[in-house]
């Protein structure tokens, strides 16, 4: 009797709830499911949209807190006075800017403008980081993976970004500081955003490392390499960008 030939059952695509939970708990399984498949825009678009929504919630929740508004106003005042001391502005210009500041922290213009900037920054960071990882894969690992697949991998990690933003809302509101995070800055009484040491300590954020790990897992799957090598690439990109932000006095984010 001839042996029966069994046709393998086609693999079913994971639901979005499974992808969301999977990225948070077992990212390797989610990324394994997209290996060899055609890149889907939804795999980066949906996590991006979710992160934008949570980011806007963060903006309207955090920046309407009186303590946060006072903190930002003080930071703006210090920055303006520094410009006066450096001869970049006159005291009259500072006084005029302060009196006519329609975008003061917590104002409707501040919240709307902040939300627009958020959308631009998140969209740009998705493309920028994907481009960097795509280039790094080609240069250091001789990868032939397409940019679309790297975009898909990095985009799925935005599920983690959304959760991180929710956790950050709780931490910032509870601590009454826009600089509060799960990093060594929790042990700094007076955080100075212009202090390089303080900024470096702020970069050592446990939640940020969680995100980096998830990206590393995804890249290791599509690059077909060890997790150590992919985390080396991800960690190297993080270190270079962190040093640029710290020593070039860039703001937080990305």
Q: What is the first-to-last residue Cα distance?
A: 64 Å
| C-alpha-based Rg, rounded | 22 Å
> How big a fraction of the residues is strand?
under 5%
Series of secondary-structure elements, N-terminal to C-terminal: HHHHHHHHHHH
Largest sheet, if any? none
SSE-based structural type: mainly alpha
Shape: elongated
Mean pLDDT: 89
Record field, number of beta strands: 0
User: In which range does the helix fraction lie?
Assistant: 55-70%
Residue runs with pLDDT of under 50 for 5 or more positions: 1-11
- Supply the number of helical segments: 11
Walkthrough of the structure:
The chain has 254 residues and is mainly α. The protein has a domain at 39-64 and 106-247. Helices cover 70% and strands 0% of the residues. It has 11 helices and no strands. The chain has helices at 16-25, 27-34, 42-62, 66-85, 91-99, 108-141, 147-156, 158-175, 196-203, 206-223, 227-247. Helix 7 (147-156) packs antiparallel against helix 10. The longest helix has 34 residues, at 108-141. The protein is elongated.
